Fold Copper-transporting ATPase.
Amino acid sequence: MVTTTYQVQGMTCGHCVGAVSNQVGALPGVTDVTVDLPAGRVTVTSEQPLDENAVRAAVDEAGYELLGA
């Protein structure tokens, strides 16, 4: 298992957490998504390293901006 933490900009509420969790959680190989709302961090556990562009696209689809890992 691989765990990576990403910085995400724009999350402000529980809806934001759900939207990001659902989009990122739908990526192939993802087994867990944890969001630290106050810190703006999203920690993703996956079976193998994820393509950052795929994570960026999922976060963008949820309506937020991935600042990086």
Q: What stands out?
A: The chain has one domain: 2-68.
